[in-house]
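=== RUN LOG ===
request id: a7f3
mode: sequence -> structure
chains: 1
length: 79
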Amino acid sequence: MIYNGFYVDKNRRANKCPRCLNEQINGGEYCKISGVTIVIKCTRTDYNGYPECEEIAEGNACYCTKCGEKTTFFKESLL
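=== RESULT ===
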């Protein structure tokens, strides 16, 4: 089975917002219209809340292949 996802570039940045489909992506990590993240990566943090893994993921990944934590797109209910 092949799971659908979002098109992402080599840096795992979506070419349009996964929530509102805004195509005016300015190079940041969040959509300027919906505020949702446009970079798919691991969300694992340490006990102080600092990023711990941040492994980049494919456009259809719900979980990190390195540590098993949820990805940004899955945590935002985009996948």
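=== NOTES ===
The longest helix spans residues 72-75.
The mean pLDDT is 91.
=== END ===
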